[in-house]
Batch of 2 targets.
Target 1
Amino acid sequence: MIHFVGAGSGAEDLITLRGARLLSQADVVIYAGSLVNPALLKHCRADCEIHDSAAMTLEEVLAVMDKAEAASKTTVRLHTGDPSIYGAIREQMDALEQRGYVYDVTPGVSSFCGAAAALKAEYTLPGVSQTVIITRAEGRTPVPEGERLRNLAAHGSTMVLFLSSSLLEKAQAELMAGGYAPDTPAAIVYKATWPEEKVYRCTVSTLAETARENHVTKTALITVGGFLGSSYDRSLLYDPGFSHGCREAGR
Ligand code: SAH
């Protein structure tokens, strides 16, 4: 049995109870050492076989899983944040399907949620934006034409950029060309929820400069949009004049 587990965004106590239990039961753990907090490995048994996938290929990861399956062992594949976001789990799951192995997935706190917590912000403010676009600037991994930053920026929604902190010169130009005003609020969140977490507030036009000045080149999220501003409408859900399934208006 193989369990894909989301490690959470960094803080060692942000893994789910289920994730921690699976880690404590595993015979073999393969963790993404470049981003998973190694403190999480405290959950592992003393005799657990631990591999850091940072320098491994997909084939090498699969070879470790093959060996564990042949010995009827339990493997945890520990991914940073939530495995469904830039986690490269599909290719692993497809390979496991082909081999007929049983596997499951335990979600985790994605870093974009960790970043909102660091910012003490709400991404979906009434009257501001009801949409969060999760995307990335194009680097070595191509981004489909219809998802170019310039095109996505046209929505003016809340946007969160993963994997982009070293590409900000071009990214900010694209964001502005697409429609964000240069003074749209933005923030760079470095190592959200880690002890060394840092929040740098700026505007769309000063993203690259802010990253440069603060030496941020990786492990950061870029957030953009009016949700970082000061105005919004109050929610209808908690408005005394609004009835819904759980409450009559007038209370
Ligand atoms: N599955 C992960 C994302 C993996 S891609 C998740 O759900 O969070 C790796 C990218 O995620 C990094 O380049 C960075 O942009 C972002 N990232 C991961 N952890 C982060 C953290 N604690 N703070 C800020 N950004 C983070």
Target 2
Amino acid sequence: MNTGRRLVYLDHAATTPVAPEVEAAMRPYWREVFGNAASLHHFGREAAAALDEAHAVLGCAIGARAGEVIFTGCGSEADNLALRGVALAMRRTGKREPGHIITTPIEHQAVAATAQQLKDLFGFDLTFLPVDGYGRVDPDDVRRAIRPDTVLVSVMLANNEVGTLQPVREIGALCRERGIPFHSDAVQAPAYLLLDVNALNVDSLALSSHKFYGPKGVGVLYLREGTPYIPPITGGGHERGRRPGTVNVAGAVGSAAAMKYVSHQREAQSARLAALRDRLIAGVLDRVPDARLTGHPTDRLPHLASFVFKDVDGESLLMALDVEGFAVSTGSACTSGNPEPSPVLLAMGIPPAWALGSLRVSLGYDTRPEDIDALLDVLPRCVERVRRYGLSDG
Ligand code: PLP
């Protein structure tokens, strides 16, 4: 058990705490301004005004118009709406049958499982692009994969397990030349990268406010005006008919406040965290035998360091570090007693004996240099113990 020392949270890629400014901005929208933004009376209009403002703030932050921003229930929902909504609409034009979707083997499940369902239940063809040893897609492979019936390309902006950034702008440009809608899952990016939907050449983009110091359960879908789209959720006319359901106004306000919060410090924090991340990477590779960095050495999220350790069980390592007071994550999962390596790492060509021992350390705006030094002090011991005994000895 932890012995009363400070717990160090190094899992910001899983979620971030709500910033105090964000909490304060949301507070009036639970009890004071509680109206349904679709109602015509005073209470509704008050809520609608706050919602309009949230659309405008989010749009402005990513170079989009307010009307192109759709609030959803989470980042996963934003990905679902984009993939299903656009693929089905594109096929309905009748010119692209049976319908072909291009994606990568390193997407988050929100994209991967949706693409798979579009194949299994809706009869779309699915192509997974190859990735290199860093988890990067080559735009030439996208060019080669495109077919006359391609209805959608989906490539994530920044990978959640290894932090590698994708050449989204180039892929978007070649999709645009061919009139193929391009979606990107940018859920991991907003706290660290300035996003501009025009520079990125995307037609849709998924965000999730709990990854950038906003509330959980609020996602954002950017959908470029004119992109073919059938709303996968049917119901009322909320969010201009693209996402029916009474809008979570407090969540939308919180999401906008969070976007403002990160916009003010993104540049400085990214530079500060990249230096800490590099110190962590150098320290781990120096002190832990049989350790490798995963993902691209430089073209990666500034706050994310990820490793594999040979002959280590990732979940046991996570638990050993938890006992020492460090919250981190692993890509390997234990299902029915069998450790399974992360499919993302396997797609990058990492052998299973290494991929089983994966560790993701994701820093945040409150991470201090002492936190990294403290982790570097305990990690070699934890790896050694898990290697020797399998499970943490507490
Ligand atoms: N996409 C990526 C890359 C993610 O990292 C996550 C969450 O971890 C999601 C999508 C899903 O976001 P949410 O938890 O808001 O559904």
